[in-house]
Amino acid sequence: MILYFTGTGNSAFIANTIASHLNDEVMNLFDKIRDHDYSELSSEQPWIIVTPTYAWRIPHIVSDWINKVSLKGNRNIYFFMTCGGSIGYAEKYLEEISQQKKLIYKGCAEIVMPENYIAMFETTPSNEVDGMLQIAKEKTLEISTYVKENKSIPQKTMTLKDKLNSGIVNNLFYPLFVHAKKFYVTDQCISCGQCERVCPLKNIQLKDRKPVWGHDCTHCMACISYCPTKAIEYGKKTVGKQRYVCPKY
């Protein structure tokens, strides 16, 4: 079974690409995470987790959900992580999660995708997106063959920088940067409620027909990216920047 979490569609695209190749069931974890649903799941096929990379590891909300849910049936587990550049040393922490779940860790695939983290970076130029998605699709299909043949995914050589990014940097990144304090809405807001609907943590509520952010945020960029009028900004970081939603999602 393929389980995926996505903010702006990249991981959904990869999950569905895997599903089409393996003829496997695919499940969006959005409602599971949003509703704190940890009901038992079972699969005869290997478990495949597809997720974005947040600060060189899987999002905390995804690892928290995995730690709390019971995964029955097949004991093999694979990970596919979409990223703008690198997944760092995420493998170490995925192995730990797998061991805690008494699952057999079969490796992690690094899938480079168009950039969407506009709170810090520029999005990928629109004329480069289709090419990147095609390359990502081809790599995903190639790596999916390892799953089909019950083989472990070959791992890349880790550098000291990878280890630091996934360790110390990740530990500092969340408390220092991952919050909703800088989100605000401009006069372009049409009170459509889209931001409220796409938030995986129910962190946005419309008050007086305008979105208000709470204290929970995972920086998935869904609210700002799906806003139909580009009315949401994150401090001065996003002003004038192109938004990104995977065109294949």
- N-to-C series of helices and strands: EHEHEEHEEHEHHEHEEHE
For the record, give the distance between the C-alpha atoms at the N and C termini, rounded to a whole number.
19 Å
Reported CATH architecture of the largest domain? 3-Layer(aba) Sandwich
> For this structure, what is the CATH class of the largest domain?
Alpha Beta
Rg (C-alpha, Å): 18 Å
For the sheet with most strands, the description reads:
5 strands, parallel
Shape: globular
CATH topology of the largest domain: Rossmann fold
Low-confidence parts: none
Average pLDDT, rounded to a whole number, is: 97
Major sheet: arrangement of strands: 2-1-4-6-7
Q: Fraction of residues in helices?
A: 25-40%
Report on this structure.
The chain has 249 residues and is of the alpha/beta class. The chain folds into two domains: 2-173, Rossmann fold (3-Layer(aba) Sandwich), CATH 3.40.50; 178-234, Alpha-Beta Plaits, CATH 3.30.70. Helix content is 36%, strand content 20%. It contains eight helices and eleven strands. The chain has helices at residues 10-22, 30-34, 60-68, 90-100, 126-148, 160-177, 194-198, 222-226, and strands at residues 2-4, 26-28, 41-43, 47-52, 71-73, 76-83, 104-112, 183-185, 204-207, 210-213, 232-234. The strands form four sheets. A five-stranded parallel β-sheet has the order 2-1-4-6-7, sandwiched between helices. The chain has a two-stranded parallel sheet with strand order 3-5. It has a two-stranded antiparallel sheet with strand order 8-11. The longest helix is centred in the middle third of the chain and has 23 residues, at 126-148. The radius of gyration is 18 Å and the shape is globular. The model has no long low-confidence stretch (mean pLDDT 97).
